[in-house]
Design a protein that fits this description.
Length: 187
């Protein structure tokens, strides 16, 4: 069970990096959070293994799927099967609680800060944890919006406007820092 290859002599380096990150967040005027699938995976939203088998055993038996993701591209013979799969997929990945409190912990880190979130995640975990929806930009949408063309066009525009509004505020610390750095580069 032990590796013959030494991966690291100590966890001190990792702990130092975590401490530095915590300090940077605590002292920052503003924080932009960029998040992808890894954050939801760390919160327990896995698309394979026990969680997949528990919720999709009938599809596994019938179609031989090995994970939730590949099932989403399967050319089902009927719309009933297609939507049976997708409705369950969306319910499990958008409306159920994340098994681990990763998003709650992240919110505690930025609570009281001027923050904005840019994410490719469509699982609604940021809002479920209590992040202000006016400070979120879901670049790939949200499962809860379905596939309506209206939302596909208007929601991204609304979110871009939210970010632009946050960025353009005269009191935005991030904007002040960017303007200061731009002036420094020009001189």
């Amino acid at each position: 069970m032990f590796s013959k290859t030494e991966t690291m002599k100590s966890t001190d380096t990792c702990c130092d990096k975590i401490s530095r990150l915590k300090h940077e967040i605590e002292t920052a005027d503003a924080v932009i959070i960029g998040a992808g699938a890894g954050l939801s995976a760390s919160a327990g939203f896995t698309y394979t293994g026990k969680r997949f088998e528990q919720h999709f055993s009938d599809f596994i038996r019938k179609y031989g799927f090995h994970d939730m993701y590949s099932g989403g591209f399967y050319p089902f013979e009927t719309l009933e099967e297609h939507w049976a799969y997708w409705s369950r997929y969306i319910y499990i990945n958008r409306y159920t609680a994340a098994p681990k409190p990763v998003y709650d912990a992240l919110l505690k880190l930025v609570q009281g800060k001027d923050y904005f979130v840019l994410t490719t995640n469509v699982d609604h975990c940021f809002q479920k944890a209590g992040f202000d929806k006016q400070r979120l930009f879901y670049t790939q949408g949200d499962y809860g919006l379905g596939s309506a063309a209206y939302h596909a066009i208007t929601k991204p525009m609304i979110m871009r406007l939210s970010f632009a509004k946050w960025w353009r505020r005269k009191d935005s610390p991030l904007r002040k820092t960017a303007i200061f750095m731009s002036r420094m580069e020009q001189s």
